[in-house]
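Exam revision sheet. Question 4 asks you to relate a sequence to its structure. Input first:
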Amino acid sequence: MSTPKSLKSKTITGVFWSFTDLMANHGIQFIVQIILARLLLPEHFGIIGMILVFISVSNAIVDSGFSQALIRDQHTTQEDYSTVFYFNLFVSLAIYGILFSTANMISVFFGEPQLTEIIRVICLVLIINSLGIIQKAMLVKKVDFKTLTKISLISVTISGSLTIFLAMSGFGVWSLVLNMIALQSVQTGLLWYFNKWIPSLIFKVQSFKKFYSFGYKLLLSGLIDSFFYYIYFVIIGRMYSTNQLGYYSNAVKITDLASFAIVSTVQRVTYPVLSSIQQEKERLKYGFKSVIKTSAFINFPLMVGLAAVAKPLFIVLFGEKWIPSVIYFQLLCFAGMFYPVHALNLNALKVKGRSDLILLLEIINKSLLVILIVFSLLFGFGIIGLIWTIVIHSFISFFINSYFSAREIEYSSKEQTKDLLPSFLLSFIMGGVVFQVGRIVDENHLLQLVGQITLGIAIYITGSKLLRIQELETLFQMVLPMLKKKKA
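Answer key, structure tokens:
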């Protein structure tokens, strides 16, 4: 059993390297995205957006929830790893064959002739990804995010450089296709290089059954989640222009770079660490309570602040041609406020082994989303109305998710709401002031952006001190050991 001291040390180390990984990784991706947005057209991003749902759903099927089951299991054997490895590889080959043969039908559905060849090339990432799933799961299980950080940085740097070169050379949408192939190829190669594991020539049915009983529910949950995350790409791509999908796709990309950095950090680190104390009820509740409050303290002002400075941000970074993306981006920021909280509540269920509840939650939440989407389409609210359904769904899902997780860790929706309310209210006060200042001073967009960001940070930190929000001190106590560790 981990002692409190070793658990804290492991968590701090994991958070530091995971956050460094994600910040550097997303930082490089963000720079690449800025350059590509200026080199390519919105329709190029729109074409790739049409395919993302197929890649995302296929990756979920290839993994089948087995990697999460491996991370959670405390007594994994070589036979277990080998069995899952061969299963992942076999499924990836089967799905690639299906997508290869149906590529033309998908192309006809979207009315985009280029999609046939693009799908047949880009879906190779499914096979490449399957070769590295076990290697990555082993590193996550060991909380070795330092190695994962190295792998991510090298992969993103190489693939990003290649993509920019191809875009400058006039490859258009194919530069984005080859970016995904290169990123996954380099990443998989480095996973094998840094994690010296080789599968044995064995497929054990008992191992398969053991992980399947836990993983298949996560698979169904992941399929539902992936499908509905990208359903907006399908609807917009089918009902509106490729340009509109490009604007939406870019807004999603930038929102994800901001919000999912925090989501992925807390999700990747807390799951393996807290899985080790899954039987200690009080420590488990305290750990989730602390992480939820701290992640919300960071993410709430980040997302509200980005929504407030959206217009000058897009003009400065991407240019005037991307202004139509601004309203999409602002709405997605509001929806993204609760993403870390959603992830943590689901992590609580994973840690307790309740994959059945995770599946039930996906069914409930996505049924609600279907109702909202159908309502929006029937009443003709357009793309803006469609994106508003994401915001409404995110807020309602918080109460649904927290209700179910409370049954496992005794941390109720009421308690969570009370803990998150100070950061929530302060974030909107800060965002409102920053937005109004931006409307007054809008001549020089760069100066406007810098001034708004500075003002927002000052208001939020000052407000946190005046309201005595504990997370400011908690965050300082977390960052200081990380910096000392890095210096050492």
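Marking note for examiners. The mean pLDDT is 84.
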